[in-house]
Amino acid sequence: MPTKSVFPALEAPKAEKRPRSQIRHGVELIDDYGWLRADNWQEVLKDPSLLADDIRAHLEAENAYQQAMLADTEDLRKALFEEMKGRIKEDDSSIPMKDGPYAYGSAFRKGGEHPYFFRRPAEGGEQEILLDGDREAEGKAYFNIGSIEHAPDHRRLLWSADHKGSEFYTLHLRDLETGSDLADRIENTAGSGAFDAGSAGFFYTLVDDNHRPSKVFYHRIGQDAASDRLVYEETDAGFFMNVGASLANDWIMISIHDHETTEYRILSAATPDAEPKLVAARETGVQYDLAAAGDEFFILTNADGAKDFKIVRAPAADPSRANWSEVVPHQPGRLIIGMEAFKDHLVRIERVDGLPRIVIRERAGGAEHAIAFDEEAYSLGLIGAAEYDTGTIRFTYSSMTTPAQEFDYNMRTRERTLLKTQEVPSGHEPSDYVTRRLMAPAGDGALVPISLLYRKDTALDGSAPCLLYGYGSYGITIPASFRTTPLSLVDRGFVYAIAHVRGGKDKGFSWYEDGKRSSKMNTFTDFIACARHLVAENYTSHDRLVAEGGSAGGMLMGAVANMAPEAFRAIVAQVPFVDVLNTMLDDTLPLTPPEWPEWGNPLASAEDFALIRSYSPYDNVAPRAYPAIFALAGLTDPRVTYWEPAKWVARLREHNAGDQPILLRTNLEAGHAGASGRFSRLEEVALAYAFMLKVTGMMKVTGKPDSRSAGAEPT
Questions:
Q1: Of 102, 628, 653, 659, whose Cβ has the fewest other Cβ atoms within 10 Å?
Q2: Which whole-number Å values give the CA distances from 676 to 113, 161, 272, 554, 643, in the listed order?
């Protein structure tokens, strides 16, 4: 890897060392930069102005340094932003979905940052705007709509908004006859709610001071929220909780879960004052999900050793586990991802050999057929329907070269109707691009899928720069779907690659298990194997390879930076979860107890402590030549707190034996998801891409393919 830096020789901020120590399992942990964690972090989430002056000064110094180091990319960033914006249909609109007398949808106006939501008569007629996101966002530095739900009687709208990026949502109730919000306003919620069957009130989840959704309440419209009925309280801080309604609005369902265990409590939506009834008591490692279907429930579960899940049914009158009977048996290697139940059909989406398909099952006779596609790598999304009594469902299809297509599908006639194809206003010719699926051999013999996208005229002789993206946690699968933003890199000669590493469910549930807890190292070594395979196959070279990941994928970035710094020219870590050990030792943080099943509990277990300590990126920074690193954070992020990347960058700088820069940008007005507007987000993407192009010597303003110089040396 070249050692000469392409960045100016500016002095980087140097964080003070104020050592803090703790002893765990006989081991002393000394954290020189622990002071960057605000003691009043709960208050800062709600009011960023309360951040201590010394911490704010340090973050602002980091931002100024990052801006200076990338000052020469200003024209490039503007060009990238305009390119990416040009691929977005500014006045895009969803296809309205019928629900009773109306069809509901959302749209953007030209130049708008936020969507507006509308409805029109189901049989056609004038559009009625229900909620205007741009209007609601006026004068706010940050604004994000959490959810929107209309009442069964279509007279009111329940909607939520986050004004800080901290994911404390305020629920609002709108009268659709007057267009005005009522006095029924509830703060500090998880962001969604569910109406009862009579539209007389709604259920919601309240978030406590530690940002944990611990209580479900019922609010009767028009009454003081202080008198709302407590429906259920979860006392175990290790569990998440949310509340929702069934498709037919006949059941209220409270889902209580961590990353490996589920419990549901249900009550009839027609009797909101009833006590919720337990479906199946939580049993460690047993997961299940419910779909109400008239007089029965369908249940997707991994119970009884069904690792890749099966579907059972149970009577609605008593859906306890003793009454479960099998409908779709467990089949190893066929991972059932999700399901929806309708009056005459049961629909499931599953993944076989890494590719998704939608399967339609007749409830009366059990006959099945699948909706599948033939591309080498593609993505399917099941939208479903807004009505229970329907024969038509909606789904989306895309690949890395094919823009998203939205279809209505008649489950009886098997007729497929194309409703919409994603428009790319600035132009996109799929035949100019190639998508491929490779298999990288891991050290233990496992084959790790890699999805690739590149222009067909890109030289595959090792000279092309490459962006390799990875995640690999919580069983989340990164689909090989169409994304417009990477085209700005691909059109400049980049190969864009997704490493489907262990820790996701890309190859079934075992693929997830082989990348968590005691097997977590597989996630990191898989990613490194993918990087080396791309070089071995001449798609790129190590000195032109950029790695990117966010959140838990940012932990992946931190780990591979420690384990194989020579494999990468640069690393971009978005809101990176890099202080894993300290975070998992702090049970006051919002996500720590619910995360223990994923990573282990280092408070209770010396073995888990040693395991996490062995890979935690912050704890394994050591004197070595690191690649160029760009970390991005959000001050009000409740998921990956801002101090994790701030501390990590400080320690990296202290130990970096090379001359590549370590940069940090903290968005002081946003949280985990970054800027809230659709175009504001593009500015953040443009900044990260400008860094990638600069570090690989591709810093041209134009993205036209005939101006590429894929073999150019870094400038």
A1: 659
A2: 8, 11, 35, 20, 21
Going by pLDDT thresholds of 50, 70 and 90, the confidence category of residue 714 is: very low
Between CA 705 and CA 712, with CA 706 as vertex, the angle to 5 degrees is: 85
Cα torsion 562, 566, 569, 575 to 10°: value is -10
Q: Where are the alpha helices (DSSP H) in 95-187?
A: 133-137
Is the CB of residue 635 less than 8 Å from the CB of residue 48? yes
**Between β-strands 628-634 and 570-574, what pairing exists: parallel, antiparallel or unpaired?**
parallel
What is the pLDDT at residue 354?
Answer: 81
Asked whether residue 681 carries a pLDDT value surpassing 60, the answer given is yes
Using the structure block, give the residue that is written with the tokens 């597989």: 522
| Alpha carbon distances (Å) from 175 to 143, 158, 170, 433, 613 | 22, 9, 17, 49, 53
Task: Give the burial string for 368-403 (b: 16+ CB within 10 Å, else e).
Answer: eeebeeebebbbbbbbbbbebebebbbbbbbbbbbb
Q: How confident is the model at residue 1 (pLDDT cuts 50, 70, 90)?
A: very low
Rounded Cα gap, residues 480 and 400, in angstroms: 6
Average pLDDT, the chain: 94
Show the domains of the chain with their CATH numbers: 433-579+617-704 (3.40.50.1820)
Q: What is the H or E stretch that residue 338 is in?
A: strand 334-341
pLDDT tens digits along 317-356: 999 999 999 999 999 999 999 999 999 999 999 999 888 9
Residue 488's closest CA among 707, 714, 672? 707
DSSP class per residue in 653-691 = HHHB-SS--EEEEEETT-BTTB-SSHHHHHHHHHHHHHH
- Coil, strand or helix: which one is 538? coil
- State the Cα–Cα distance between residues 407 and 415, nearest whole angstrom: 10
Instruction: Give which of 591, 576, 585, 559 is closest to 672, Cα–Cα.
Output: 576
b/e sequence 468-485, b meaning 16+ C-beta within 10 Å: bbbbbbbbebbbbbbbbb
Return the DSSP state at 306: -
Helix or strand run (H / E) with residue 561:
helix 552-563
Per-residue pLDDT at 709 exceeds 50:
no
Tokens for 702?
């134009």
**Which sequence positions are flagged as catalytic?**
551, 637, 672
Say which residues have a Cβ less than 8 Å from residue 124's Cβ, sequence separation at least 6: none
